[in-house]
Amino acid sequence: MRSIYLKELSSFFSSLTGYMVLVIFLLITGLFAWVFSNTSIPSYNYASIGQLFVIAPMVLLFLIPALTMQTFAQEKQQRTMEFLNTKPLTDTQIVLGKYFACMTLVALAILPTLIYYYSVYQLGSPKGNIDSGATIGSYTGLFLLASVFVSIGLFMSSLTDNQIVAFILTAFSCFLVYFAFSFIGDLPSLFGKWDDLVKYFGIEYHYDNISKGRIDTRDVIYFVSLASMFIWLTMVSLSRRGW
Amino acid sequence: MSIVVDALTKSYGQQNAIDTISFSAAKGEIVGLLGPNGAGKTTTMKILTCFMPPTSGTAQVCGLTVGKDDIAIKKKIGYLPEHNPLYGTMYVKEYLRFVERIHQLSKDIGRIPRLIELVGLGREQNKKISQLSKGYKQRVGLAQAMIHDPEVLILDEPISGLDPNQLVEIRSLISNLKKDKTVIFSSHILQEVESICDKIVILDKGKIVASDSLTTLNSTSDKTLTITIELLNGISADILTKVDGVERVEPISDKEYLISSKYDNRAQIFDQIVGSGNKLVGMTKEKKSLEAVFKNVTQGRK
Q1: Residue among A9, A71, A79, A83 with most chain B CBs within 10 A, to mutate
Q2: Terminal-residue alpha carbon distance, chain A
Q3: What is the residue extent of each domain of chain B?
């Protein structure tokens, strides 16, 4: 697993992908959080970096597909999948190696935003007047959300040898899992008293919960099981090598 | 026995890519898998390397069964696939270090330089793989297959697409490995196989049509031999047909002839020509090539 992990990580940084993901993530979140007056933290007048956690999922929604689209689609297209499959590696090692490499890159993108927290902490009046609990919860939520997006991305990439197809499928599926359930739940008189249950299937509901600073095991279990399911599906899809 | 293949069958839908083939290879042997395109060479190799499972039959590598001990087999095998898949964006050494890590080899700083030396990558070792020419990519592929000093090497068309010099080098590289490794390699170019293989398995349409050592294959096939002669002056073909053993005389030009004989009767041909007052300026016995063997065994089945 370590070999695949290191290889993936170095391939992110030997191509532009890795740098692009880092730069674009920080650029967009930075602009929205500090520059654009409609959404910026200083114009919000409260010592909170909540804005960051509204924008970040949107950015991840198209950056993670761009990150994961190559994972398997490219290996298949270059036929290097045959190379990996004839080496002493299990499918689990290959999938998890790639999964953790993608997660590492996402973590590297999210990590510098801790500066936002530090800035607001210093700027708060009185100093340190920021809801640290909610911030910890929000970071946890963002990380869990990313772990689901990455697992969806790996699965979609394992289905095709075309990176563009993998990108579109991933972006669309992440969008569905993130928003669609809340939208459907909000439709008037469609499900009536089942509205809440419908929303419960979507990521947004759980993400909002955790962002409040209350890390509920039910929400954590939701994220972990969703990510595990897609990782498992990836392994199933890989084990059927098309014969 | 390093490799034992027993009644191996692989079918895609209705079509059998390979059909109940059986052969074996002892330790230290170089076995050539031979056959026209689509004969099932690659399929056989893909099963041996645990890339895909057989439909029926068994394959054993170093006493381990394909389908049961896949990881253990993959550790003992070095495989160079037909299309030689490489990561173009990686550097040669970076790639080899990656393969080293996959095999979880013990730390040995000298391993990669030794390997680079062995396959003759010296001059190109600091380049990106995508910048290498086909022959050098092939060497990277070979280095990758041999990095863990495997007991069995499976090479799918290792010398196709190389220039003549590279061909000679890679061929001598393979035959030098011989001592302690079992090598299986495929080809549809017969001369390649002829020079380095101990044993040849000829496949056609998924079936084994011949499987034996080179010398037996040569002797069991048609024994007639072809002799080319060149004369100083023109001669009548009738004079040549009178020689004992000559079956057919075909003129190439009025001074050159192609003679088919039942046995090696070059001395008699010489005497006959000199006796007729002509002068012989050239005579060669055509080496019986595998090409002929191949034609014999595959055409009989049509």
Answers
A1: A83
A2: 26
A3: 3-218, 221-298
Interface test with A, best of B102, B105, B140, B149 (most A CBs within 10 A): B102
Longest CA pairwise span in chain B (Å)? 76
CATH architecture of B3-218: 3-Layer(aba) Sandwich (3.40)
Q: Name chain B contacts of A239, Cβ cutoff 8 Å.
A: none
Structural domain tally of chain A? 1
| Helix, strand and coil in chain A, % to nearest 5 | 80, 0, 20
Q: What's residue B218's pLDDT?
A: 64
ipTM for this prediction = 0.86
- Per-residue pLDDT of B147-203, as tens digits, reads 988 999 999 988 776 778 878 888 888 877 767 789 998 887 776 777 788 888 888
Q: What is the mean pLDDT of residues B294-298?
A: 67
CATH topology (fold) of B221-298? Alpha-Beta Plaits (3.30.70)
- Distance between CA A116 and CA A121 in Å, rounded? 8
Looking at residue A242, what is its pLDDT?
54
CA distance B51 to chain A (A): 6
Whether the pLDDT of residue B302 is over 50: the answer is no
Rg (CA), chain A: 19
**Angle formed by the axes of helices A203-211 and A50-77, nearest 10°:** 140
